[in-house]
Amino acid sequence: MDDLTAEVTDLLQHLIRNACVNDGTRGSGNEVRSVDLLAGYFDGSGIDIERYEPAPGRTSLVGRIEGRRADAPTLLLMGHTDVVPVNEDGWRRDPFGGELVDGEVWGRGAIDMLNLTASMAVATRRLASEGFRPDGTLIYLAVADEEALGTYGADHLTRHEIDAVGADYVITESGGIPVPGGDGDLRLPVLVGEKGSCWCTLRVSGTPGHASLPYRTDNALVTAARVVQRLADHRPATRIDETWRRFLAGLGLPAEVTEPLLDADHLMDTLADLPVGMARQFHACTHTTIAPTVVHGGTKTNVIPDRVDLEVDIRTLPGQTLTEVQAILDDALGDLADRVEMVASHDDPATRSPSDTPLWHALERVTRAFYAGSHIVPMMSVGATDARFFRRLGTTAYGFGLFSQRLTFEEFGRMFHGDDERVDVDSLRLSTEMWQAVARDLLSA
Fold this sequence. Notes:
CATH topology of the largest domain: Aminopeptidase
Strand content: 15-25%
Distance between the termini: 33 Å
Radius of gyration: 23 Å
Helix content: 25-40%
Number of helices: 15
Oligomer: single chain
Number of strands: 19
């Protein structure tokens, strides 16, 4: 293992072992542990370091290599340090052990997204150590609270600390998984936008009573079960947008493959013949999705419940509003719609960046040096990232990395928030070298 690969591997292992688990509560995360680690890692490199802590333990770190010209572009490399909770029973190895096995680092966050957080840090430190003084400014951001709503991380920083994190261009997760094209050349997806999040709490009301007398009762839990089934069965309309068209066109596949995927009337039938991971991704890129995820209800075993709250994760396409979401729910629920009240919602609309930009062209040039003949292609992320906060400021923000061909698109998608998360060390090296090359290309005269 060469020195660079060993360095980024070691840093990733330590980030995994810090177990900055974010369960969505104010007191979770404890990202300060990884900020302390990163601050120590940058010590002596000459990089200017600042910390921001809007709540105890919810700390973000910003490091800067200041550019020589105020009119030159600024590039922000943004990785998050928090990870989602884990059920250890589903793992073959300790999810917070950071073990290196057969050239792969195992652990929660290895894919989402501590691998990139580590590789961005190593690239930034190495550039600084080499005396990199570009025209434009390079910023490294290790941000807290990405896995919830960004309240203590990117949302806070873009609202209150814009002088520290403001940039012309941002790169964060994920993208960069090599996908074989129809012409034999590799395609590297760049996430130019992401779907919106509309997290809703739907309340189903009923009438309380003694559970020993269930006949003809108005049981809110029974009604809620019917509501859940209708939401699961609903088939929102297929929408074909420009990003989807450009993604398919960029794959270089024959027309007989792509045409059904561009036909709103036949796309669903086509998905049935695809591998399940790809089918889920393609479906989410072309539909509003509704997923019931959490239920709260009932007070006691022998009491008919009079209220049940359902938490529902709805992901919206660009341009959709909360009013449209309510119409979709009403359509899905039919005659049950008047039994359901939306009592809370978090509406975070979809965002998108242009692809004809200096950063896009820099990625085109740089990636071909790693994968000869490869092509980057625009893609919509179906999950949320911190890029959305920057896009709303007018910043061009992409999701990218650079991975080896050892990791397939199917495996990559399955490990996000899943079991047995791991990344190979070749991918860590590729991403680190790519960040250095992009910074030199974009920020130097």
